[in-house]
Amino acid sequence: MSPIAIVTASDSGIGQEAAKELAENGYDVGITYHEDEAGAKETHAAVEEAGCRGEIRQLDLTNPDLPEAADVIDELADALGGLDVLVNNAGTGDPTGDFLELSYEEWRRVLDTNLDGAFLCAQKAARRMVDAGNGGRIINITSVHEHIPRTGASAYCASKGGLGLLTKVMAMELAPYGIRVNAIAPGEISTPMTGAEDTDPHTIERPNLPLGRPGHAREVAAWVVFLASEKASYATGASFVVDGGLMLMAAELSS
Q1: Which of 27, 33, 104, 156 is the catalytic position?
Q2: How much is the pLDDT for 205?
Q3: Is 138 exposed, middle or buried (0-12, 13-18, 19+ CB in 10 A)?
């Protein structure tokens, strides 16, 4: 039987590339989307082209009935016959404005999507993995702003920082069940969230980055596949920064 992964928000960007890469490595894949059903169907076609099974469900983490929305994880696991890997990728990166002007409603929207939604999906997945008794892997997609602040993004930074620390607590509590939990913290990646999905990142100049360009979603997906594999069997509770050297510039600017 093929291993089974669920990748939230796998209709485009990092999630779509992660789903494709997992399928290329033999995983049946549960696919979720918020609004872009066509993108989810494109991902599904790529999974099937790789010779694997795919299932699609809509997942709305902005839903006021948030706990019920996460039932999609159980639906996909039931449809595919189990769950070995969860990639918690769904989130919003919308700018929220200055701290002094930020409304509570906007703060709550970002936290609901990026932190509460990730918590609920991870909890659903972890409970299934514990019940199955075969271990598992949970991979939370955070952001470089899990680690460093960004002005005008207080809600986003708080949500990603919270998810980063939640990753560590989960890793400690779930280790006895053979479940490894890690985070991937991307920097600027050419995706719909950054408005550059169809642009080759090698053609975009970022002189302030050591690598001089944004990343491609495939470069993050490669880390997803690695952390899902037994090659990463001794890694848990870590955050793997994939940012083209962005965090290194903090040291450069302070010198």
Answers
A1: 156
A2: 62
A3: buried
Stated as kind and residue range, the H or E segment containing 179 is strand 179-186
Q: Is 12 left (phi over 0), alpha (psi -120 to 50) or beta?
A: beta
- Provide the β-strand partners of residue 33: 58
Q: How far apart are the first and last CA of the chain?
A: 54
The token pair at 136 is 């598992």
**Is 33 a residue of the active site?**
no
- The tokens for 235 are 């890694």
Give the distance from CA 10 to its chain's centroid.
Answer: 9
**Token representation of residue 51:** 């010779």
Confidence at residue 194, expressed as pLDDT on a 0 to 100 scale: 45
Tokens representing residue 173 in the block: 């509590």
Average pLDDT of every residue of the chain: 91
pLDDT digits (tens, 9 = 90+) for 92-135: 987 678 999 999 999 999 999 999 999 999 999 999 999 999 99
In terms of phi and psi (left: phi > 0; alpha: psi -120 to 50; beta: otherwise), the region of 51 is: left
**Tokens 């694997």 identify what position?**
52
Asked if 178 and 136 count as a contact pair (C-beta separation under 8 A), the reply is: yes
Tokens of 40: 């989810």
Q: Tell me, what amino acid is at 130?
A: V
